[in-house]
Design brief:
This protein has about 525 residues and is an alpha/beta fold. The chain folds into four domains: about 1-275, TIM Barrel (Alpha-Beta Barrel), CATH 3.20.20.70; about 295-320, no CATH class; about 325-385; about 395-515, Alpha-isopropylmalate synthase LeuA, regulatory domain (Double Stranded RNA Binding Domain, 2-Layer Sandwich), CATH 3.30.160.270. It is built from 16 helices and 18 strands.
Length: about 525
């Protein structure tokens, strides 16, 4: 079977989703999970865009050993220089350099002639080789709206210059499977040196055809597919890699292709990306949505009980969903806890392990049975916590409400300066009262744009997880919080969003100091 390489751009294109702002620890945690997931190439970021992105790409490049780490660069020597500095310590570094090739982009954005664009592309691939990159992916931005004859001409020249991967993106999600497949077939038939490189597809989902377009590319010669976990990304997002991997596996009778994806890591990877980005997975999302294996119809339920294959083409276990994952309880010791977190794929320092064990013991005082999902929340929060940045800390809160009383919230905080602040406010509902109070306590100007509440696991004692999208002093951020009490989770999500702005400001100040 033909091996299809998987190029993940969750940390670059995925992070460009509005409101998503991952910190370095969160990016590193996702990167380590992507490595466990079995992807072939990881686009860690766009290091020339900011000092924070540079530092994150460099840390990922130094940490990840079994995946090729790449960084995006415009067709500029300065971008390539920064990419090399960020990636030079990687086990398998590669450059991803792009330039637009469609008539509309060349004329209105680049203001260059086709001949000038070819020369720039060739020069930048050549420069990347001289800089030290042995693997170079060249992308024709807006390839799906590019004249095919011109596209074949520029592809041939950049291959001669040293490109090892040619990416033909559907940048604006405009094309159809038939058109996109024909573009790849045209390259295979009209570029003499095309067999020297991997052909890559990068599809956006503006018309809902990203996955179908990706498969059409494979059918017509593509050997690498680019996408993101959960399909996140700019606008309507990218092709969802977990859907691609499962589709090729389930329909291997029709598609003679294989990948290196470790399918039973699918759900955990999806959950981690969803949690850290604040982008909830829709219940009806293919492969990883909470309803993917739920059968409400009586006929369906009867069939599944008699034989699961009657209505389940994907088994929950294939993608890492366990029907019974009860693991630890109140009397579990530190050794058993340490063994369990290793099974879950986490590698904690002694300090972080002690912190996690303490949080676990506190949870067992209130929750009889602790599941993998509960541990996942605890461990992820601890691994991605930035303790060396000033922050607001929730000390206590109380919300009074009832059928005939206007809800009133009283909240006490420790401010970033270390002082105590306390006040009370009312609202039409308990969450509004709580958020009105928090808004009055923090000095920053805040505006809530979205609020989402969900449960972790099942049962009346399940953990609650709250996600918010907010504007804080004009900066759009996401925040998250988890607790057994839904109001506590909501309060923590609000403060987490505000605290993220402090981390962004610290990174920006560091960047200014280095100039």
């Amino acid at each position: 079977m033909v091996q299809i390489k998987i190029f993940d751009t969750t940390l670059r294109d995925g992070e460009q989703s509005p409101g998503v702002n991952l910190n370095q620890l969160e990016k590193l945690e996702i990167a380590k999970q992507l490595e466990r997931f079995g992807i072939d190439v990881m686009e860690a970021g766009f290091p020339a865009s900011s000092q924070g992105d540079f530092e994150a790409v460099r840390k990922i490049a130094q940490t990840i050993k079994n995946v090729s780490v790449t960084a995006l660069a415009r067709a500029k020597e300065s971008d390539i220089d920064v990419a090399w500095e960020a990636l030079k310590d990687a086990t398998d570094p590669r450059l991803h350099v792009f330039i637009a090739t469609s008539p509309i982009h060349m004329e209105h954005k680049l203001k260059k002639t086709p001949e000038e664009v070819i020369q720039i592309a060739v020069d930048m691939v050549t420069y990347g080789k001289q800089k030290g990159f042995k693997k170079i992916e060249w992308s024709a931005e807006d390839a799906s709206r590019t004249d095919l004859e011109f596209l074949a001409q520029i592809v041939e020249k950049v291959i001669d210059a040293g490109a090892t991967v040619i990416n033909l993106p559907d940048t604006v999600g405009y094309t159809t499977p038939k058109e996109y497949g024909e573009m790849f077939r045209y390259m295979k038939d009209n570029v003499p040196n095309i067999n020297k490189v991997d052909l890559s597809a990068h599809c956006h989902d503006d018309l809902g055809m990203a996955l179908a377009n990706s498969i059409a590319a494979i059918e017509n010669g593509a050997t690498q597919i680019e996408g993101t976990i959960n399909g996140i990304g700019e606008r309507a997002g990218n092709a969802a890699l977990e859907e691609l991997a499962v589709a090729l596996t389930i329909r291997n009778d029709f598609y003679p292709y294989t990948t290196n994806i470790v399918l039973n890591e699918t759900k955990r990877t999806s959950d981690l990306v969803s949690k850290l980005t604040g982008m909830a997975v829709p219940g009806n999302k293919a492969v990883v949505g909470r309803n993917a294996f739920a059968h409400e119809s009586g006929i369906h339920q009867d069939g599944v009980l008699k034989n699961a294959s009657t209505y389940e083409i994907i088994s929950p276990e294939m993608v890492g969903i366990q029907s019974n994952n009860l693991v630890l309880g109140k009397h579990s010791g530190r050794h058993a806890f340490k063994d369990k977190i290793k099974q879950l794929g986490y590698d904690l320092s002694d300090d972080k392990l002690s912190e996690a064990f303490k949080a676990f013991k506190l949870l067992t005082d209130r929750k009889k049975e602790v599941t993998d999902d509960d541990l996942f929340v605890i461990l992820t929060d601890i691994q991605t916590d930035v303790s060396n940045v000033k922050r607001y800390v929730l000390e206590s809160f109380q919300v009074q409400y009832g059928s005939y009383n206007l809800p009133t919230a009283t909240v006490a905080l420790t401010t970033p300066e270390g002082s105590r602040a306390e006040t009370a406010c009312t609202g039409q509902g308990s969450v509004e009262a709580l958020y009105n109070t928090l808004e009055k306590l923090v000095k920053e100007e805040t505006h809530l744009t979205d609020y989402h509440l969900s449960s972790i696991g099942k049962g009346r004692d399940a953990l609650a997880e709250a996600h918010v999208s907010m504007s804080v002093d004009g900066t759009q951020v996401n925040g998250r919080g988890s607790a057994q009490d839904v109001l506590e989770a909501s309060a923590q999500a609000f403060l987490n969003a505000v605290n993220r702005v402090f981390l962004i400001q610290k990174t920006e100040n560091k960047e200014k100091a280095s100039i």
